[in-house]
Write a structure and sequence with these properties.
Pfam family, one: Nitroreductase
Number of domains: 1
Strand order of the largest sheet: 2-3-5-4
GO molecular function, one term: oxidoreductase activity
Oligomer: single chain
CATH topology: NADH Oxidase
CATH architecture: 3-Layer(aba) Sandwich
Bound molecules: flavin mononucleotide
Domain Nitroreductase: 13-194
Number of strands: 6
Distance between the termini: 46 Å
Order of helices and strands: HEHEHHEHHHEHEEH
Number of helices: 9
CATH class: Alpha Beta
Structural class: alpha+beta
Shape: globular
Protein name: Nitroreductase
Helix content: 25-40%
Strand content: 15-25%
Keywords: Oxidoreductase
């Protein structure tokens, strides 16, 4: 891979497709993987709490352990790296680490728009002080980690690589096999490498069909 390859961004978006067949001989080094994950982690997140952890599968043994967990999807082995994007169910625990340095640095907007650090931290704690049945933590983990996963796929494409996202895996088996602490939940697997077979052709709905201008009309419940 040449990290110098940087296509025009709109071309990157249009040319990214879900690749399922990767060249097993193609190697990506650790530094390149770090660069990809650094770009993935520049995604936005609620309160900038950065609700993601990346488990990078590069070693043959680990990839083979992942294979049955991923329902035998061969791309997890053949890809140069398969990244499991995990969501953080306790991202409130990141608040001090995220805001401490900004507050110490005396930045003008150190409290993310709040009047004081106490109000900021209280807001975050209040949001996370929900009982176990509340979907809030899970929703936050999934939506924020998904943004990082999308950036990962686009960064890969911009760097001349291909990718394939997967939810076709057993999250419980993943947690067990790779000793994932309860704080994190597996959200998505992303295989990254060099395609040896192009992605299946796909289409999208015409944009007109996906837009609702300024709210649905009354009575459109069955649309
Ligand atoms: C959340 C998510 C889960 C997916 N899971 C799988 C999967 O388990 N296996 C697979 O082969 N493709 C999977 N895909 C790829 C989709 O099938 C693919 O993105 C879709 O058909 C559109 O194709 P394109 O991305 O090539 O345009 C997944 C995509 C997303 C976004």
């Amino acid at each position: 891979m040449s990290s110098a390859v940087q296509s025009d961004f709109l071309t990157v978006i249009r040319e990214r497709h879900a690749v399922r067949y990767f060249d097993p001989t193609h190697h990506i080094n650790e530094q390149e993987i770090m660069q990809l994950l650094e770009l993935a982690g520049s995604a936005p997140s609620s309160w900038n709490l950065q609700h993601w952890k990346f488990v990078a599968f590069t070693e043959t043994d680990a990839k083979h352990k992942l294979l049955p967990v991923a329902n035998g999807q061969r791309q997890v082995v053949d890809a140069s790296v398969t990244v499991a994007v995990l969501g953080d169910l306790e991202a409130n625990r990141n608040a001090a680490a995220v805001y401490g340095p900004v507050i110490e640095g005396g930045s003008e907007d150190a409290y993310a728009g709040y009047a004081s650090s106490r109000i900021l931290f209280d807001q975050i704690e209040k949001a996370y002080a929900v009982d176990a049945s509340s979907p809030y933590r899970r929703d936050e983990a999934i939506r924020n980690a998904s943004l990082a996963a999308m950036q990962l796929m686009l960064a890969a494409k911009a760097m001349g690589l291909d990718s394939g996202p997967m939810v076709g895996f057993d999250p419980d088996a993943f947690v067990k096999a790779f000793h994932v602490p309860p704080r994190y939940m597996p959200v998505l697997l992303v295989a990254i490498g060099k395609a040896i077979k192009p992605a299946r052709p796909t289409t999208r709905f015409p944009v007109e069909q996906t837009i609702v201008w300024n709210g649905f009309d009354p009575g459109s419940a069955n649309l």
